[in-house]
Write a structure and sequence with these properties.
Layout: E1 16-19, E2 25-28, E3 34-37, E4 44-48, E5 55-63, E6 69-76, E7 78-80, E8 88-90, E9 96-102, E10 108-114, E11 124-131, E12 137-143, E13 146-148, E14 157-159, H1 160-163, E15 166-171, E16 177-182, E17 189-191, E18 197-200, E19 206-209, E20 216-220, E21 225-231, E22 237-248, E23 257-270, E24 276-282
Antiparallel strand pairs: 1-2, 2-3, 3-4, 5-6, 6-9, 7-8, 9-10, 11-12, 12-15, 13-14, 15-16, 17-18, 18-19, 19-20, 21-22, 22-23, 23-24
């Protein structure tokens, strides 16, 4: 049943969407423009214009436990981050990764940049975003050449050639660096029911990381590509994505092959220990989020 439908002033195509604890919706576009809408009416309750000067690649939009709004991505040039006045964030000569936090009423709280160490060239991007149960923020940061993963005054320097091209980075609720871990995934990221962090889409295909330390708790692999992740009320994990050819969807020793002659979508259900439960396939590829709430 349609609840509401609204037109938007955002640039069409490629939005990043976040759903809040009470059903609020945040939409973030390629111009760096943000709309936050009320769950009941669909009316805009907060908006930010990116200023129209930057080349923006949105990496995510998400809500905190208190309905705080977070947006992230990469940009070149300068981007406005204030809903009330013009407050520019500058990338430098190369595209930079960034994270911006707003309050539940849309006021600017803080911004964080992911850039090379001072004096070094190189680009960076935030490719995925998740918010923890305590308000900590987790991002996937990719880069070229060198990167400083600590957006504060200290430095956590990484080298593309020696350390790899991507990291999962945790910032605490105040926006300060907590830890980082190499990853092969560009996301998505998701916060599990117990507060730990799930990374989908790399090798292994899915891994669960400790929110406290970033250490891997468990992982699993299968042949299909993953685009979205959700959780059930009894700890189940649901993964959506697409596949072609023949894929074994059982991460364990048994075989659950599915075959397609073209490209098909799938929804895979695993238990909390990442053992196979079931898989369903179809003809429409899944790009959006999966929501839990079902015991099945």
């Amino acid at each position: 049943v349609l609840h509401w439908s609204k037109t938007s002033a955002l640039t069409p195509g490629g939005w990043r969407i976040g759903i809040g604890p009470t059903g609020r919706v945040a939409a973030y576009d390629f111009a760096g423009d943000l709309e936050v809408r009320d769950a009941s009416s669909g009316d805009v309750i907060a908006a930010v214009s990116g200023g129209g000067e930057a080349s923006v690649t949105p990496g995510g939009a998400a809500f905190g436990p208190g309905e705080e709004v977070f947006v992230a991505g990469s940009f070149g040039g300068r981007i406005n981050v204030s809903p009330t006045t013009v407050s520019w964030l500058y990338s430098g000569s190369d595209p930079a990764g960034y994270l911006v936090k707003y309050s539940s009423t849309g006021e600017f709280v803080h911004s964080r940049l992911f850039v090379p160490p001072s004096g070094f060239p190189g680009s960076a991007a935030v490719e995925a975003l998740a918010v923890g149960l305590d308000g900590s923020v987790y991002v996937v940061v990719s880069y070229s050449n060198l990167i400083d993963l600590d957006p504060g005054p200290a430095e956590v320097r990484k080298n593309f050639a020696n350390d790899g091209p991507r990291f999962v980075v945790k910032l605490n609720p105040q926006g300060n660096y907590a830890w980082s871990r190499p990853t092969a995934s560009s996301g998505p990221l998701a916060t599990g029911p117990d507060g730990d962090i799930w990374v989908l889409g790399g090798s292994p295909m899915i891994e669960k990381l400790s929110a406290a330390t970033g250490e891997r708790i468990t992982s699993a692999d299968w042949g299909g590509g993953g685009n979205s992740i959700g959780f059930g009320t009894q700890g189940q994990v649901f993964i959506g994505g697409g596949f072609s050819g023949t894929v074994d969807f059982d991460p364990g020793p048994l075989v659950q092959n599915r075959t397609t002659t073209g490209n098909e979508a799938y929804v895979l259900s695993l238990d909390g220990n990442l053992a196979f439960r079931w898989v369903r396939t179809g003809t429409t590829r899944i790009f959006g989020a999966l929501a839990g709430g079902s015991p099945n």
